[in-house]
Specification:
alpha/beta; Quinone Oxidoreductase, Chain A, domain 1; Rossmann fold; 27% helix; globular; binds NADP nicotinamide-adenine-dinucleotide phosphate; Zinc_ADH-like; ADH-like_C; NAD(P)-dependent alcohol dehydrogenase; ER
């Protein structure tokens, strides 16, 4: 590949049919930037919402989507001190959130939304918005971490602390949910996983699920979760769906339960009754991926636990539309784009 041509996939308007290959120049790193040659990119559900125009209706075109990538540092700006050429790095998606409280305006500097996305041969990361990739993971595996794994990690290990033996209900078997299942199992939490597919639930069991519920054949999955916990209710629910689904999530929670609002797979709104919040002293927390310090802690844990991300399928750089079509169907774990 020529070093001065940067291949990308660019949106010229909303809709997958308007996502097309494009060529541009390799960007020049500013004083605090890393120039990174991408090795693998992973897709998240929100990339579909951006491509179809739901998430950012006023997006400016042309636009390169996606947020998660692993690559090699090939050049550094004159003032860079945190990384060297040759290191393998991951982008910190909320680029201006190193630790602690969120920046005053969250998502002002976010990869793949307010900042350019990752579907290019070469991308720039600010040196403060990158972390070393876990050495034990392949490029394809490492590319899955920046949003899906960090969101799951933040919900289970940063926003609250895991207590072995407690129960967590995880909805679906997509990217965030399977990382949540793997972390939960590693922490000794008892994970109840819901899915539309018995076959996927069988695989979730192999990954360490304590109990499983098919939400298609058992639409009253909240009652099933209450039965599984002897009527007490679960300690923590990861809400991935929204709408009326959240009503069931609240019903499935026990005293001092926690509801982590993560996803909007079914609706852009939530609806639930107020009384159970008071009766059970329920804590609700909205999640927004996580900060860099949490990313570094998570990567350390991934090494210590020898955790391997679950990859549904890998597509080539020339197969990006097919990868997005797969995402629409509901993956088991992650979809990755790697190779030319
Ligand atoms: N707040 C944040 O920081 C944050 C970060 C990442 C993602 N998210 C959001 O979290 C959600 C999941 O993201 P993702 O990237 O992990 O998605 P994904 O990988 O595309 O996951 C899709 C999976 O969701 C499951 N699903 C769909 N409808 C469901 C329902 N009604 N009940 C239970 N499961 C259902 C399906 O699992 P089965 O096939 O097993 O049924 C499907 O495979 C999205 O809404 C995304 O926007 C938020």
């Amino acid at each position: 590949m020529s070093t001065d041509i940067n291949r990308s996939w660019q949106l010229s308007g909303f809709g997958l049919s308007r996502l097309k290959p494009a060529e541009g120049k390799v960007p020049e790193p500013g004083p605090h930037d890393l120039l990174v040659r991408n090795r693998a990119v992973s897709l998240n559900y929100k990339d579909k919402l951006i491509v179809d125009g739901t998430l950012i209706p006023d997006l400016a075109f042309p636009y390169v989507p996606t947020s998660d990538a692993v690559g090699e540092v090939v050049a550094v700006g004159s003032a860079v001190s945190r990384f060297k050429v040759g290191q393998r790095v991951l982008g910190q998606v909320i680029a201006d959130w190193p630790d602690g409280d969120a920046p005053p305006v969250l998502h002002k500097h976010t990869l793949g939304s307010s900042l350019p996305g990752m579907l290019s041969d070469y991308v720039l990361f600010g040196e403060d918005a990158a972390v070393s990739a876990p050495p034990s993971l392949s490029d394809v595996e490492a590319a899955t971490l920046p949003i899906a794994a960090l969101t799951a990690w933040f919900a289970l290990a940063e926003a609250t602390k895991p207590i072995a033996g407690q129960t967590v209900l995880i909805q679906g078997t997509g990217g965030v949910s399977l990382f949540a299942l793997q972390f939960a199992a590693a922490f000794g939490l008892r994970a109840i996983v819901t899915s539309s597919s018995d076959e996927k639930l069988g695989r979730a069991k192999q990954l360490g699920a304590w109990q499983v519920i098919n939400y298609r054949t058992q639409p009253a999955w909240d009652e099933a979760a209450l039965d599984l916990t002897d009527g007490l209710g679960v300690n923590h629910v990861l809400e991935m769906v929204g709408g009326d689904n959240a009503r069931r999530s609240i019903n499935a929670l026990g005293a001092d339960g926690r509801l982590s609002i993560i996803g909007l797979l079914g609706s852009m709104e939530l609806s639930f009754p107020i009384l159970p919040f008071m009766r059970n002293r329920i804590v609700v927390q909205g999640l927004s991926i996580g900060h860099r310090r949490a990313f570094e802690r998570m990567n350390q844990a991934i090494e210590a636990l020898a955790l391997k991300p679950v990859i549904d399928k890998v597509y080539g750089f020339d197969q990006v539309p097919r990868a997005f079509e797969h995402l629409e169907k509901g993956p088991f774990g992650k979809i990755v784009i790697a190779g030319s």
